Structure formats: structure tokens, C-alpha cells
TrEMBL record:
<feature type="transmembrane region" description="Helical">
    <location>
        <begin position="194"/>
        <end position="214"/>
    </location>
</feature>
<keyword id="KW-0812">Transmembrane</keyword>
<dbReference type="Pfam" id="PF07693">
    <property type="entry name" value="KAP_NTPase"/>
</dbReference>
<feature type="transmembrane region" description="Helical">
    <location>
        <begin position="160"/>
        <end position="182"/>
    </location>
</feature>
<dbReference type="InterPro" id="IPR011646">
    <property type="entry name" value="KAP_P-loop"/>
</dbReference>
<protein>
    <submittedName>
        <fullName>NKPD1 protein</fullName>
    </submittedName>
</protein>
<dbReference type="InterPro" id="IPR052754">
    <property type="entry name" value="NTPase_KAP_P-loop"/>
</dbReference>
<keyword id="KW-1133">Transmembrane helix</keyword>
<keyword id="KW-0472">Membrane</keyword>
<feature type="domain" description="KAP NTPase">
    <location>
        <begin position="7"/>
        <end position="349"/>
    </location>
</feature>
Amino acid sequence: DIYCRCLSRTLCHTATPVTVGFYAPCGHRLESLLAKVTAFMREEMAQREAAELRRGHRKPRSPHGWGLLEALWLLAFYEPVVTEGHLRRKNLEFIFIRFSAWEFAGCDKLWAGLVTTLCHHVRQHFGALPLSVFHVLGSRPRFASGFSQREWILKKGTCLRLWGLLLVLAVGIAILLVALLVPGIKDHHALKVVGSAVASLSGSSLVLGALSILKNFLVSEKKKIERLTNSDRFAGQLGFMSKIREEVEVLVDYLAFMEVFERRRLRVVMEITSLDLCYPEKVAGVFNAMATLLSDANAPFIFLLAVDPSVIVPCLEQTGCMKGLADNGYLYLNRAVTLPFSIPEMGARSRLRSVAAAIQTREDLMYRIIAGNVAKT
């Protein structure tokens, strides 16, 4: 508990993006240890939220319920601004994502499973509609000039284009109605053609925008990446990774937008487990995917790599990624991991607790889940 609480507090203060090597000599302990770290981080998150409210700060918002309408309005017509007051906010929200590498070990591109899992859970957390609107109308937050506390700036260009299209559409419909209904003008076919052309051109622009939002709503980022990985046209080209990078950049910009909207800092905690059960080449692919996701300096990602180094290092040393590193797996692991955190071996008391948990029946384990749910409520 002491080690897990220390790590949870460290992750609340460390800068992102960061890769944490969560090293434990016995792989069977990792699930319970990760559960402890997650629980302590949620506890820290609740304490910070309460402290911000006591200081008199405004209550955070949520993109669900009535907050969804407000989020869509701001996405369409306003540009977020990162102010000095936003940077001083201490309240955090952690989005925990568990990625079991063993579930994707059978596919050719294990690293693609990591990216698709990240995109899927972020989309599921905030909802599909806000992310779809952001793809079409959203903009990345910009930094405030000076110490201004104004967090939203009206997008005048978008508003002018929208009002212009609506005005042209109204004029086209009016001309068409006059040409169809006013006596004496019905025989002027040119007026009908002009009215229908103006109305159709302006209306088509609005329809195309709505169709783009609908397309992003129906086709998620996960499906886009899966199509790219299955396509032979992109598999061997440099443009393939750039497409993946574009999807990740949109996701990072969207998280930055939601930070300003929710009035809190967001951190995506990616817990990677079961990596020591995969083939060596698949292990190296996951490290390459982490490097791709961490390449953006503003990415709010925390990768919690729960592995046993004595198993991972021999896997890395058997792959081609070790060329130029003197075939030293520990050197490669130290370069990939920003913050190594080692859990010591079990003591006698911990072993007794593990044995007691191992001999419990299925009904006992289910009762523990029910009791935990009661404590949460």
C-alpha cells in the first residue's frame, strides 16, 4: 500500500507525457497492485476536486446531459483559450484504460491494438457526438496573450460563413417561392432556375457539413485505423504512420479542448499488462507505438507499463530493434521508460494474504465485488 500510494501521488504531480515502468518480480501481483494504484489515484482526484470547490472556483462541467448541448455550442462557434488561471488548476480527472497485450497477441500489428484501444475508450468516455463535431468544426486551444482570464473567443469567420449561407439560402427560397406563386411571374423560367440554383448551392454546403459530422459519428477512429492496417495500399508506405499520427493529434487536440470545457486537467492513464506473454517482435511493436503516442509534447498520456523486467529484457534482445545498443535490453528499456518504479519482493505477510485470496471460492470473490460496489455508493 505504501509503494502504490507513493506512485499514485507521483503520477498526480509528474509532467506528461510520461512512461512509467511498473516493475514487479512476480507477474501475478500486477493486477492487484494496479488496482491499488488506480484506487489511490481516484482518491487523490476526489480530494483535489473538493479542495478546488472550497477555494471558490467554479464547478467543473460534464459533456453529458444538458452539458452536451453547451459543449456542442462551444465546439461550433467558439475557440478555447488556455489562460493562466487554467494552468493553475489543481483538480484532475484520470481516464483509466486497461490494455491487455495478450488479447491482441494474435494480430499482425499489436501496436495498432494499443492505438485503437486508446481512441475507443476516449470516444466512449466523452461520447461520440462531441468528438464527431470536433473533427469538423473544432479547433485546438490557443494560449492567452497576457493574463487575460477569457477562456472562449467567438469564431467570427465561422459565424459569418454560417449566416452568409443561411442568408443566401433564404434569398434563394424567396426567389423560388415568388417565381412559383406570384401571378404574372410564373411564366419566367429564368427566375425559377436562379432561385433553385441559389437555394441548392447554399443548402448543399450545409448538408455537406452535416454529412461530415454524421460520417465521423458512424465511423469511429478505431474503425479508421483498422481499415488502414488492413489496407495493402498503406501497409508498406511512409504515409501509413502519418495517417495514424493525424488521428492521434486530433485526439490530443480534443482532450485539450475538453480540459478547458470541463475546467479541470485531464490525464489518460494507459495501463499496459500481459506484455511479457507476447512474442518478442510484438513487444518491440508496443514500444514503437508508445513512442509514436508520446511524440507530441502536449499529449496528456501516462503509460503505466506493468511488466517483469527479467522477462521483457530477453524478449527485446531477440529483436532487430536492439541493433546499435550493444544488444543490451536494459539500456533500451531505460531509454523507453521515463520513470522506473520497482516493487520489492513479497514479505511473509503479503504471501499469507495472497494464499488466503487464492483459496477463496468463486462465491467469495463475487461477494467481495458486491461489497466494494456498496462502499463506492
